[in-house]
Design goal:
This protein has helices at about 10-15, 25-45, 50-60, 65-70, 75-95. By secondary structure, it is an all-alpha fold. Helix 1 crosses helix 3. Residues about 1-10 have low confidence and may be disordered.
């Protein structure tokens, strides 16, 4: 993976934002995907680094709560709760943005 680009604060944010949601074939679709990536990047950068990490581990790396707990060196129950709280925080941040979550619909 390439290092974070301009405006991407860390590798975890970069990895999450660059996950391909779908392959855009038209210029308008590519523009929408770019807007989604920008909004997601802004939301993630407003979150705690551990929240970003737990989201990446659980959602993108598809680790279990136990595996995530091991990586983060915390209890499994704490990792599961942290993941749910991070998802809620991300949703709240995205909803508070202009256009809310609807703006993320391609």
């Amino acid at each position: 993976m390439s290092p974070p680009g301009p405006g991407l604060s860390d590798a975890t944010t970069y990895a999450i934002v660059e996950q391909p949601a779908c392959t855009a074939t038209r210029a308008s679709e590519a523009a929408i995907q770019d807007e989604i990536k920008l909004r997601l990047q802004q939301a993630l950068e407003g979150m705690d680094s551990v929240d970003r990490e737990v989201l990446a581990l659980r959602h993108f790396e598809q680790l279990t709560s136990a595996e995530t707990a091991e990586v983060l060196q915390i209890e499994e129950r704490a990792a599961a709760k942290r993941y749910l709280r991070a998802l809620k925080r991300l949703k709240d941040i995205l909803e508070a943005m202009p256009g809310g979550l609807l703006a993320l619909q391609p």
